[in-house]
Amino acid sequence: WYQRRVREAVVSTQSTGGHVLIDPSATVSPTAILGPNVTIGANTVIKDGVRIKHSIVLDGCLIKPHACVPYTVIGGNSKVGSWARIEGIPEIVDPKQTPSSRDQPPDV
Question: What is the predicted pLDDT for the residue at 2?
Answer without folding.
Answer: 47
